[in-house]
């Protein structure tokens, strides 16, 4: 994995959507994709980065969508949290098969398979060089896994939140799938993203990142070794931050 030499990150959280684990499948987990993501995360951790991963569950269940069919929204969201736990366990297994030391922390109590989420415990695991996986979102309905990723990144003192998108290599001024002339941003501020209603993440998560001056990097998870480069701090995707020029990798 070749990369431009830039200052390495100390601690970072990568938000993996459930869709990022599907590969070319329409549902569930693609083993080849899962193992490749695990390889990249392990390589970044081996380079000295303290790595946290927050996983979504959209490859199994999307609470907001199911609720539109008439199911109680809170119940639908709790079911979605179970989907994130399945993804977390699959990722944990893939990482451990590559000899990584991993801890899965769940916001929903499920002691048979995961530790309960405790902030100080999570930080201690990271300090010891363990890869930490956050599952079950925030443990509350009506909160997206984007918000959970932002919250966990802030709580565990991560330097950056890495948003691994499925097939989108950054933030655009319009949907590139619908508008061929859409322009990709290299850098922009949190407030610009909010005011322009850009599809970075949900507004609650974005506002939280702005309030706590947490930079966000939006990139395409399917690009070669993209997760590895994002975790290391290489130039990739779109940087969203309080001071875009200064906060971007390699910036002044």
Task: Please provide a written account of the structure.
- This protein has 252 residues and is of the alpha/beta class.
- It is built from 9 helices and 11 strands.
- It has a single domain, classed as Carbamate kinase (3-Layer(aba) Sandwich).
- The strands form 2 sheets. A 9-stranded mixed sheet has the order 4-3-5-2-1-6-10-11-9, sandwiched between helices. Strands 7-8 form a two-stranded antiparallel sheet.
- Strand 1 (11-16), helix 1 (31-46) and strand 2 form a beta-alpha-beta unit.
- The two termini are 25 Å apart.
Q: Give me the secondary-structure category.
A: alpha/beta
Number of domain units = 1
Low-confidence stretches: 248-252
What is the CATH superfamily label?
Acetylglutamate kinase-like
| Average residue pLDDT | 92
Measure the end-to-end span. Answer: 25 Å
Largest sheet: 9 strands, mixed
How much strand? 15-25%
Envelope shape: globular
Q: Class in CATH?
A: Alpha Beta
- The secondary-structure element order is EHEHHEEHEHEEEEHHEHEH
Helix content: 25-40%
Radius of gyration: 17 Å
Number of strands: 11
User: What name does the CATH topology carry?
Assistant: Carbamate kinase
What CATH architecture would you give? Answer: 3-Layer(aba) Sandwich
- Going across the biggest sheet, name each strand in turn: 4-3-5-2-1-6-10-11-9
Our count of helices gives 9
């Amino acid at each position: 994995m070749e990369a431009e030499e830039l200052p390495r990150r100390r601690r970072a959280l990568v938000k993996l959507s459930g869709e990022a684990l599907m590969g070319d499948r329409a549902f569930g987990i693609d083993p080849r994709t899962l193992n490749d993501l695990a390889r990249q995360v392990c390589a970044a951790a081996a380079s000295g980065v303290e790595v946290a991963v927050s996983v979504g569950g959209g490859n199994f269940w999307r609470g907001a969508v199911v609720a539109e069919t008439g199911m109680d929204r809170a119940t639908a969201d709790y079911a979605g949290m179970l989907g994130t736990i399945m993804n977390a366990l699959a990722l944990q297994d893939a990482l451990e098969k590559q000899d990584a030391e991993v801890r899965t922390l769940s916001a929903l109590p499920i002691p048979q398979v995961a530790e309960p989420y405790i902030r100080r415990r999570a930080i201690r695991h990271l300090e010891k060089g363990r890869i930490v996986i956050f599952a079950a979102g925030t443990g509350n309905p009506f909160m997206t896994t984007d918000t959970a990723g932002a919250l966990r990144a802030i709580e565990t003192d991560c330097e950056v939140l890495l948003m691994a998108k499925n097939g989108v290599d950054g933030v655009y001024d319009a949907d590139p799938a619908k508008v061929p002339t859409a322009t990709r941003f290299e850098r922009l501020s949190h407030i610009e993203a909010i005011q322009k209603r850009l599809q970075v993440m949900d507004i609650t998560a974005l506002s939280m990142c702005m309030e706590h001056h947490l930079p966000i990097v939006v990139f395409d998870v399917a690009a070669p070794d993209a997760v590895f480069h994002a975790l290391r701090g290489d130039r990739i995707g779109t940087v969203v931050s309080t001071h875009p020029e200064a906060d971007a990798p390699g910036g002044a």
